[in-house]
Amino acid sequence: MPKTRIVCTLGPASSTETVLRKMMLAGMDVVRINFSHGNLEKHKEQIEIVRRLNKKYRRRIRILGDLEGHRIRIGRLKGHRPVEVFRRQVVSLVPRDIAGEKDVLPFDYHGDLSVFRKGHEIFIDDGNIALVVEGVSAGRLKTRVLIGGLIKERKGINAPDVPLAFRGVAPHDQPNIAFCLAEKLDFMALSFVRSRADVVAVRKLIEGAAPGPQIISKIENREGIHNIDQILDVSDGVMVARGDMGVSIPIWEVPMVQKMIIRKCNAVRKPVVTA
Fold first, then answer.
1. I want to staple 30 with a disulfide (CB 3.0 to 4.6 A). Which of 7, 50, 148, 250 is the partner?
2. pLDDT, tens digit (0-9, with 9 covering 90-100), for 216-272
3. In the chain, which residue ranges form alpha helices assigned H by DSSP?
């Protein structure tokens, strides 16, 4: 029996029974449902299709629900149109629900902005856009653009050197966790895991579920890398999330960190996903 499995993320183009059947016959072992996009009604439809195919073809395609976690994102933009920013342009980031345009963009971090310091770098859309903090005042971050481009609504924000005040389970994850339990998913992936406490907090929420989903901790920031041994101890498996990891640490370090995490998982006989 092969030890390697193929995990496939479902999206708009791959959610029909016809396409999923082709993916299954091509070797798909696990489907990943991304709770950062779509809604629970749509996700339920996807799950029903997978289980129908499992029954029809006597397969055991497993289902993984990927929680969004504590993710900072760009907010609404005027007319829902992308905003283009240019190198050396001054852009203010404000933690308010406004329609962003030109040089004022909303973002959904509601912690203390004083943790941002002059010189801290902020990356948007997996590093396609880069800003540097020039100051904090009047409830906004004053930044200057290092790498320009188009900024779209809901794009993710990374601030790798900033000690962000995230603890416990993100409020928007709680209904998705309940959904994972109700639908009896096989795996539940926790995003942006920083410490053992992040995993334990979710385990407390799912106590009593029988059988509950196996917890896969996604390692994608410096804190998670530093605390990998403690995280692995309370997780059923680990996912090496190289996309956000490559923004949080120098890109050339990612292959070495990836191999280190894989070795640790193999040593304790726990599954590891490279994504």
1. 7
2. 999 999 999 999 999 999 999 999 999 999 999 999 999 999 999 999 999 999 999
3. 17-26, 40-57, 174-182, 196-205, 222-226, 228-234, 242-248, 254-267
Query: Does some domain include residue 1?
Result: no
In this structure, the answer to whether residues 44 and 115 fall within a common structural domain is no
Q: Which of 158, 193, 208 is the C-terminal boundary of a domain?
A: 158
Q: Residue 214: give its domain's CATH number.
A: 3.20.20.60
**Is residue 270 located within the same domain as residue 176?**
yes
**pLDDT tens, residue by residue, 116-159:** 999 999 999 999 999 999 999 889 999 999 999 999 999 999 99
User: Residue 213 sits in which domain range?
Assistant: 7-70+167-274
Query: Tens of pLDDT along 204-216?
Result: 999 887 788 999 9
β-pairing, 72-73 vs 156-158, is: antiparallel
Q: pTM of the entire structure?
A: 0.91
- 234: exposed, middle or buried (Cβ count in 10 Å: 0-12, 13-18, 19+): middle
Residues 62 and 188 in one domain: yes
H or E element: which one contains 216? strand 214-219
